[in-house]
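Lab notebook: predicted structure, single chain.

Context: the supervisor wants predicted structures on file for every construct in the current expression panel, including those that have not yet been purified. This is the next one on the list. No modifications to the sequence; it matches the entry in the shared construct table.
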Amino acid sequence: MASLLNPYISFKDNAREAMEFYRDVFGGNLEVNTFGEYGQPDSPDADKIMHARLETDSGFTLMGADTPQGMEHHPGDNIAVSVTGDDADELRGYWTKLAEGGQVSVPLEKQMWGDEFGMCTDRFGINWMVNIAGSSA
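Prediction complete. Output recorded below exactly as produced.
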């Protein structure tokens, strides 16, 4: 297996909702396991997500988990997820869904380097960058 680079996002008690949201945005197969399933059935965190993995039809991999009790959680201040490609319709669709209910910091529009680019923070506090490759002409 080749090495993979993908984001792993920590959430505070809403990993299942967030990962299901991302599945709705990108499509694909979502696998979810709780702390209880991994040997902590009596823990206060038993029903929280210990590990979730989303594999999309476009080849994206996104992982996430709930932050267990006793650990600090700082949403969005140390991660940005970049989605880039040349399928403008697909990427604009992702952008629209990610920005809905969130905050746009850079509108998705043509930039000085020739690509369309935008930045937003989704409704879960995660920062996203969407880049649509411009024409090579």
